[in-house]
Amino acid sequence: YTGHCPPLEVQRNDKLLWLWEQSRALYPSIYMEEVLRDSPQGRRFVRAKLREALRVAELPSAPHSLPVFAYTRPFYTYTLKELSQADLVHTIGQAAAAGAHGVVLWGDVEYSRNRSNCQKIRDYLLGALGPYIVNVTLAAQLCSRQLCHGRGRCRRRRPDSDAYLHLDSGTFRIRVAAEGGQAHVAVRGAPARRHMQHMARDFTCHCYQGWQGERC
């Protein structure tokens, strides 16, 4: 896979301007096939879909771009095999770094068909998935506050870069804690100046409606 949308598909999306003009948001699917597990092709595939959705979001004549929410599953397509740590980065992490407004994780009745499946999902939430979602969410919020005064969201300066919105593992600790019989993800730490400098180098601001300027 080249990592680029075919020109014909771009032309087709341009011809659908009438539809984008009537849309409130865009929901590109970034499902990961198991055959793409931990591969550069999988990373490029998701990146290209996000990039095209963000391009289309700018087409309508409204004074602001359409919100983009990437639509995905916590498992490889048509399976109950959990996304690897690398593919969580390639999907959820890449959506955040590209500047998407959010990610929609969905499933179906298979997730709760039996006790074994329910336990599998719980273990995944408390193992890799939950802590990673918290990591990316807090990093995106931190970048927005520090770089954009909370009036915009961060996105890569270079769309083809491998920069991600992650908390600094040297100054933050993420762990699963249990209180009162309920498990939750707890975070402790503070951003280091060096890490914020790296964020400013790799990311820029996309201002929310009503704000503008390099740092909104």
UniProtKB/TrEMBL annotation:
Cellular component annotations (GO), alphabetically ordered: cytoplasmic vesicle
GO terms assigned for molecular function: hyalurononglucosaminidase activity
GO biological processes: carbohydrate metabolic process; hyaluronan catabolic process
Family: Belongs to the glycosyl hydrolase 56 family.
Annotated keywords: Disulfide bond, Glycosidase, Hydrolase
Recorded catalytic activity of this chain's protein: Random hydrolysis of (1->4)-linkages between N-acetyl-beta-D-glucosamine and D-glucuronate residues in hyaluronate
Name of the protein this chain belongs to: Hyaluronidase
Name of the gene encoding the protein in the UniProt record: Hyal4_0
Naturally occurring in which organism (per UniProt): Crypturellus soui
EC number: 3.2.1.35
Enzyme class (EC, first level): hydrolase
One matching Pfam family: Glyco_hydro_56
InterPro entries from the UniProt entry: Aldolase_TIM, GH, Hyaluronidase
Keyword set includes Membrane: no
